[in-house]
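Kindly review both lines to help learners:
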Amino acid sequence: MIANYYILGSKTRRPASNRTIFTDGAPDATFRSDMDLELSHWIPNRTPGVYKADTSTEICMNFLSRNDTNDWDLAVNNHVDVDGVLAVFTLVHSKQALEHRNTIVQAAEMGDFSGWGDLKAQRLYQGLTLLMDDLKASGTDTQQVYEACFERAFSLLEGAEDDPRIMKGIEALQSSVARIDAGHIIRHEIHSRFVHYHIPAALAEESLTKALKVPAFNEALQDDMWLHPQARNRLDQEKVQLISVQTPDGWYYDLWYPGYMWADTPHSWRAPGFVFNGSTNGYLYGYAPLEEAVQTLQQDEPANGGWTLAKELSPFSSVKGRNFPVVLSFLSEDYEPMASQLAPDRVAMILSRAF
């Protein structure tokens, strides 16, 4: 295990270091290429290929499986999210992390990619997210946020945490899964890289807001969506996902790319169209077959809105008025979701051909 850790931006004093591991974030100017090491899935990165994995947490797990940490005395990160916390936790509390490897890696994937995790991972993800949100809102120093998150991680991994908000969020996710499994939300796998989820009128009538919500990056699970992305990614993480919502006025549409596309993910399918723009985790987006499909939809569309395609992407931004990883939506002139008059079967057929 590495004895010390430090979160850039903290007002606390940074420990001295002979050799530093920078994980899940771009190193600062103190990085020494001949002495220090980067273990990160951010783009760009200098992570050695032998350790690479989809999350920074799993990269750190791979590093530990091949090395002891005797030569390293400091782990550094630069932000607060679940993958960042668990990457540093893995380096600092290596024995416990390796014992709970699957749970910890799945929780990191839930945070960075809205991935699926089993119940233990859901508890770990939800518990850490709620705590870090509370602490950030109160202005707690980032170093103290990590300290508190490490304490809660131990408690959650041991099954001792009883915050009722944890189970409330998990129950909301389980309800999304149940809607899919019972056919209350219709899943149609069109081919191996494209799936269509249809939210029927009854759910949209009860709450259109819950039908249309796109959660923020690393957002806590809440009962504010009919169809959580984690529930879709249980079956379809490596697919492009079309979401349609039926209303009396027509159908609302979002096209979701895999949530991991912003990161360096060598073990997952890379959907087409992302071009690194030179800025950390930033991309230009352009994919001719999808652009042609959008032109077809727009030509056929009788409604006044527009089929709006993303041009630039980051983990925190996408189509104006929506959020990452949505790359296409039908929107009004004011970039508000609006109902299309094109039926879902036709939209799915046209879009799926692009992939």
About this structure: Residues 147 and 228 are 30 Å apart (CA to CA). The first helix runs from residue 56 to 66. The radius of gyration is 21 Å. The chain is about 40% helix and 15% strand.
